[in-house]
Amino acid sequence: MRALQVTELTGPDGVRIVDVPDLVDAGDGILVDVRAAGLSFPDLLRSRGLYQERAVPPYTLGAEVAGIVVRAPEATGFTSGDRVAGSSTTGAAAERAIVDPRAAIKLPLSLSFEQGAALPLNYRTAILGLQIRGRMQSGETVLVHGAAGGTGTAAVQVARAAGCRVIGVVSSDAKARAAREVGADFVLRSDGPWKDEALKLVGGRGVDIVWDPVGGDRILDTMRVLATGGRWVVIGFTGGDIPKVPLNRVLLRNIDVVGAYIGGYLANVPDGAEHLARRLQALLDVEAVRPLVGSVHHLEHGADALRAIEARQAVGKVVVSVPGTAGPNRPAMG
Fold first, then answer.
1. CATH number of the domain enclosing 219
2. Inside any domain, residue 170
3. How many degrees, rounded to 5, is the angle at CA 202 between CA 196 and CA 205?
4. Is residue 276 part of a domain?
């Protein structure tokens, strides 16, 4: 079978299509014919050897997969022909993958495979960061940095599903349109006085939660925009360098700095994968979330998907499509 592999740690330039042994047995996992694989900023970092979880090349790119079940143990609740999305244990950007049954979800017919590939990382991270770590409550105001990106669009929808008001912060007009499309109540530009505008929207009291995958030079204004008792949920550092947090400001403002790293959560919480999957499945069952797919790249051009992420061109989820015979009633990509 064909797989999109990182052959050397040089970023997109080190990505190649290679032939690898076909997967025919998944053991305790779910064997899936892949139709789409999701990529994200950690995939780019890992391809350069810069992520906290190192990978040794050659390895198959991606960890988020959507496709059709080939075979699965009866205990998983999945059967041959089911549409499924989940986390791949073998690399997602290949013609077949093995999905961890603890993190697998049933993909509704209302969503395409491309949308399904946007679910496993971004939406579980949003659930972890907002619902679990951020202690989000209905009626609160959530400010989302990077509101047009993969995790940002997921955070907007998870917050809206909980009955929260959402302020999105973005860097361009196109990204502003995307943030509104996924449900942000207000959208502000990061190159403007977003902190003052956000405070005006909440009558000066501050927002309850800030979702922050950016970091960088925004951190002081991020702390200033929080209300007393507010939670600053740190997701990552797409803005560049990891900032140093002045703890005196955390003390004086009575705010919380909360880390939400899904890898660490899954490694240290025994039933964490199942818990996040149940919460995500519940949102899907009531059609509370609908992923925004920004660009789709054929498997043969998968390196371009990483280049789009590196160039900060990504709006919504970046997806690699894998050719094959689609399952029954496959909807159009949206």
1. 3.40.50.720
2. yes
3. 85
4. no
Residue 20 has pLDDT above 60, yes or no: yes
DSSP 8-state code for residue 94 = B
Residues 89 and 131 in one domain: no
Assess if residue 286 is contained within a domain.
Answer: no
Rounded Cα distance between 8 and 197, Å, is: 45
d(CA 21, CA 127): 36
For the chain, how are helix, strand and coil distributed in percent, rounded to 5? 35, 25, 40
Q: Within 10 A of 126 (CB to CB), how many other CB atoms are there? A: 33
Per-residue pLDDT tens for 250-264? 998 999 999 999 999
Q: The tokens 């009626």 sit on which residue? A: 139
Q: What is the pLDDT of residues 92-125, one digit of tens each?
A: 999 999 999 999 999 999 999 999 999 999 999 9
In the predicted model, is pLDDT for residue 198 greater than 70? yes
Where is 145: in which H helix or E strand?
strand 141-145
Rounded CA-CA distance 104/107 in Å is 9
Cα(112)–Cα(215) distance, integer angstroms? 32
Q: How many separate domains does the chain show?
A: 2
Residue 217, pLDDT score: 85
The closest of 65, 67, 60 to 19, measured between CA atoms, is 60
Q: What is the 3-state secondary structure (H, E, C) of 64-92?
A: EEEEEEEECCHHHCCCCCCEEEEEECCCC
180 falls within a domain: yes
CATH no. for residue 45?
A: 3.90.180.10
Domain of 223 in residue numbering reads as 122-264
User: If you ran DSSP here, which 8-state letter would residue 129 be given?
Assistant: I
Q: Does residue 87 share a domain with residue 14? A: yes
- Structure-block tokens of residue 305: 């998907």
Give the orientation angle of helix 173-181 with respect to helix 150-161, to 10 degrees: 30
